[in-house]
């Protein structure tokens, strides 16, 4: 098709349409594959974040003791576990590039909204 063109000859309309249609379909298919893979990466990243080890909590010693006692360590561990459970129970919405909590999503949506007042037009 490309070699058949000589000076003064125009491209065949059907061939040109066919080439650009196929190119457009290929680009659309590749964009769809990229989108699906990005969503899969975001899902797997959320899964990895969920299974990360718990953060350590600092144990506060009592003021009149030289060393930290075991009950204080157990209390700090219990608080860290509760914080991790609250974090895991918090609902999240997956986006392609990052995670946004429900509260952040509502705040972001509110920032997109505008309030218009049409006074004196009627």
From TrEMBL:
Q: Which domain of life is it from?
A: Eukaryota
Name of the featured protein: Uncharacterized protein
Instruction: List the source organism.
Output: Colletotrichum kahawae (Coffee berry disease fungus)
The organism that produces this protein has a lineage beginning with: Eukaryota, Fungi, Dikarya, Ascomycota, Pezizomycotina
């Amino acid at each position: 098709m490309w070699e058949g063109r000589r000076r003064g000859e125009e491209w065949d309309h059907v061939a040109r349409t066919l080439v650009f249609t196929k190119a457009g379909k290929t680009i659309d298919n590749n964009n769809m594959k990229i989108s699906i893979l990005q969503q899969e990466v975001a899902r797997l990243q959320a899964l990895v974040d969920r299974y990360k080890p718990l953060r350590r909590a600092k144990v506060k010693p009592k003021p009149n003791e030289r060393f930290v006692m075991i009950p204080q360590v157990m209390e700090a561990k219990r608080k860290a576990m509760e914080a991790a459970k609250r974090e895991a129970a918090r609902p999240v919405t997956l986006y392609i590039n990052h995670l946004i909590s429900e509260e952040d999503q509502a705040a972001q949506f509110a920032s997109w909204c505008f309030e218009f007042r049409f006074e004196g037009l009627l």
